Amino acid sequence: MFRTVRRLTGRAATVALREVAEHPAARDPAVQRYVRSPMNWFFLFVAAVLFSVSWPTLSLTHSVPAYAQPVVAAFAALPVALVYCAPVAGWAVSVVSAQLIGLLIPTVNGWPWSVQVVHIISLLVLTFAAYLRCTLRWIPVVWVSTCIVFVLAAPADARGGWVFGLTFGAVVVALIRVLARSRRQLAVSTEQKQVVESQKAILQERTRIARDLHDVVAHRMSVVVVMAQTARYRLVDVSDEAAAEFEAIAVSARASLDEVRQMLGVLRTDGESTAAPNPDLDDLGSLVDHTRLTGATVDLVDTVAHEKISAAAGLVIYRIVQESLANATRHAPGSTVQISILSAQVGVIEVCVRNTAPTAEPVRLPGAGTGIVGMVERAAAVGGALTAEPTADGGFAVRALIPDHPGNMVAAVGSAVGASE
């Protein structure tokens, strides 16, 4: 018999729990957050204990009909369940209900307070929880409202003590919170200062690195320039073709040294380095001539008016052509490179660099290339678009549409090649 009752009780409990879990209210995010917190369960247990005390003792202090006693007891005790999750809301319910009970429900048996002891305990707990959790500007509101309730609910000879206690608690809690907030602000300020100091250290390290790089690279490149320029005097039987090749090497090394110094100037923060002027469309001829010295066949068609193109657009076009020529010489040696810079439409410049299939083994360099990605980013930075893709004859083509002035935007040329060079 006992086993049967226990089995039936277990089944009933399981069914009840399933029904509760499947109820829409149980799926509410606020309800789920409440039941996940152990502190909420603790205060819910405290509220249940207070309710179990308030209901049977309510008739000893107040004249309340039996059917209304659980409601009054609930208003006195259950707001404690909100101490951890919503103390201000629980305090508001407790304050309003205490005031209404004191005004509407008479006391019996000479009870000097207008509310129960349980209600007094709940209100005190919720008041100090509200002191701790509400915003600082709301502490005076909580203090004044609670003091009014205690002045109306307490006996005449006890009102001053309760008001003093509530005032003392409000002042102490407010001072503690102000002190805690000041310490948090000091911690944030200290952290920000540390961030500034770390950034300063990073800038100093960048300056040191730039200085070291400049010294090393400048020395090596200068040695290359000197060796190339003095080769005809140091070596015996240097032909005119070899001398011209050495001179071309020296010219390219000097140009590379200038560009390296310009890039390293970005890292310098001490004002010691001066940036070289940026190249523009007028420098394309020199760029093509230097590329031809490598043995590549390069044809340039440039029909745009350089003075009508902004400096930013000119720099982007130059860098796109420069990177495309470098790619062609590395990956398609022996090919023919055709460069065209034309006016595609009003305010838009079309740049096309196309090379044929290579006739020699490509130069294999370590590392993954990022040149195409860099060209796409440069074009996008001025409102343009760029595509790079293989051609049907085994070559490669880079096509870009660049606005001649900042602020203009162009439509996408097409889908750029996903793989880097």
TrEMBL record:
Domain Signal transduction histidine kinase subgroup 3 dimerisation and phosphoacceptor: start-end pairs: 205-270
Keyword ATP-binding: yes
MF (Gene Ontology): ATP binding; phosphorelay sensor kinase activity; protein dimerization activity
Keyword terms of this UniProt record: ATP-binding, Kinase, Membrane, Nucleotide-binding, Phosphoprotein, Transferase, Transmembrane, Transmembrane helix, Two-component regulatory system
Gene3D superfamilies: 1.20.5.1930, Histidine kinase-like ATPase, C-terminal domain
Pfam families xref list: HisKA_3
Alphabetized InterPro entries for the sequence: HATPase_C_sf, Sensor_HK_TwoCompSys, Sig_transdc_His_kin_sub3_dim/P
E.C. designation(s): 2.7.13.3
Any single GO CC term annotated in Swiss-Prot or TrEMBL for this entry: membrane
Transmembrane feature ranges: 41-60, 72-93, 113-131, 138-156, 162-180
Catalytic reactions on record: ATP + protein L-histidine = ADP + protein N-phospho-L-histidine
PANTHER family, per the entry: NITRATE/NITRITE SENSOR PROTEIN NARX-RELATED, NITRATE_NITRITE SENSOR PROTEIN NARQ
Name of this chain's protein: histidine kinase
Organism whose genome encodes this protein: Gordonia aquimaris
